Amino acid sequence: ALSGGVKKGIEKANKIFIPLLAFLFIILMVRSVFLDGAMDGLNWLFKPDFSRLGDFSVWTAAYGQIFFTLSISFAIMITYSSYLPKDSDVSNNGLMTAFFNCGFSMLAGIMIFSVLGFMAKSQGVPLQEVVSSGVGLAFVTIPKAINYMPGAQFFGVIFFISLVFAGLSSAISIMEVVTASFRDQVKINRKKAATLACIIGFLVSIIFATRAGLLVLDIVDHFINNLGIVFTGLAEVIMFGWMFKLEGFRKYINELSDVQIGKWWNISIKIVTPIMLGYMAIRNLVSEIKTPYGGYDALSLIVYGWAIIISVIILAVIIQKTSKISIAVKCEA
């Protein structure tokens, strides 16, 4: 898919994976909502607790979720947007991306909590006892819940095929960032860059196929999402908000877009988002230092957590220092 380029490879692959993924998830969702106990799960999901709006951790959790689900700070949005024509409707593209992504997340939530409600009722336990998060939800809790369903084998196959399609489409987008970087930095063609990126990714990822793979994945996933992405996003938004002329960007976007963005956009980028991300970054860092994640031993956290974060920073500095490419960004108000 990556070797074929944007239109002949990535676009064609996503035209297959995304509709199939949506179709399979709709099948799972429709079946799930008719399970005995499904309404208990949905009521638990959608019943609002307005008192939690005063809890700052709820807002930081929402920021963290939207960063992850929209692939912000992965460089995916930057890479994909670089392939758009210069006269693209920026606001419309951004709104549609967020709308469809969050809409699919809602479908997934309905399916997941319907199944969890069914599982809780089947076991005769409160819903809170079967709810989990992280990689354990997809690979342990949901498969276990599907085992309780009539036609478990059929729906189990659909669920794991859905995970495969979701994983492939995500892997393509993530590896396209690396492929594009190789092309720019090393000056090689797309096929060689994609081959190199995928071989390295394959070799590194072999560890996730071992017996300890799920535990390693849990640690790596936690450190990347709670430290790597948050600090990267914080650095990006501070640089973008305070080192460039935001008003110039806003006027440029409004000239091309049907949906106009107001002054709130400047305030959000310069003040609101840095405060939220800054709080998240500091809180997460302090939490990691004070309380070891998941009860794992110190060596595992150092090798698969801290070492990876530090290695990425060092590698980024080395690549930047040795790169012959200079990038100048200019935006006139």
Describe this protein's structure.
By secondary structure, this protein is an all-alpha fold. 75% of the residues lie in helices and 0% in strands. It is built from twelve helices and no strands. α7 crosses α8 (190-205). The longest helix is centred in the middle third of the chain and has 35 residues, at 152-186. The radius of gyration is 22 Å and the shape is globular. The model is unreliable at 325-333 (pLDDT under 50).
Number of contiguous helices: 12
User: How many β strands by DSSP?
Assistant: 0
**Poorly predicted segments:** 325-333
Query: Could you tell me how far the N terminus lies from the C terminus, measured between alpha carbons in angstroms?
Result: 39 Å
List the SSEs and their pairings.
Elements: H1 5-33, H2 38-46, H3 56-69, H4 76-81, H5 90-123, H6 135-146, H7 152-186, H8 190-205, H9 213-243, H10 246-256, H11 263-290, H12 298-322
Helix pairs in contact: 1-5, 1-7, 2-5, 3-11, 5-6, 7-8, 9-11, 9-12
Keywords:
mainly alpha, disordered C terminus, 333 residues, single chain
Provide a concise account of the structure shown.
By secondary structure, the chain is an all-alpha fold. Helix content is 75%, strand content 0%.
